[in-house]
Amino acid sequence: MNRCLWPAEDPLMIQYHDTEWGVPLHDDRKLFEFLVLDAFQAGLSWRTILYKREQFRKAFDAFDPECIAKYDARKIQQLMHNANIIRNRMKIEATVENARRFLEICSRYGSFDQFIWQFTNYQTIHHHLQPGQPAPATSAESDAMSKALRAAGFKFVGSTICYAFMQAAGMINDHVVTCFRYSALQENSSV
Question: Residues that bind Zn(2+), according to the entry (predicted)?
Answer without folding.
Answer: 4, 17, 175, 179
